[in-house]
What we know:
Layout: E1 3-8, H1 12-24, E2 31-39, E3 43-54, E4 59-70, E5 73-81, H2 94-107
Antiparallel strand pairs: 1-5, 2-3, 3-4, 4-5
Helix pairs in contact: 1-2
Amino acid sequence: MAQYGKRLTGDFDQILQKIENGILESSVSASLEESADFRTATARCAVRVFERYSYLGSNRVSLNVTLFQADGVIQLFAATTGGSQAMFFKVNTIGEEAFLDKLIELFD
């Protein structure tokens, strides 16, 4: 599993749209599998689960993204999974890392 976290500034909705568009446009096989949004008077949270086929690993990998805002601070956390081909140990996680890199490129 690869993971990434970053504190962001800006408009929550624009950042979320940037994530969705950036990931879906990064690969012909990328898809948005699940999503959920939560809101209170002072906080927002958006969860997105993307999936794509990894040619390098010959398998599917998922990218789970959580965008959270409270007190004017926006926090992004993302984690990938599913790229390993082994039964008991994680090997060949190149596909996971490459998928996460697509998200990182949007903000670095």
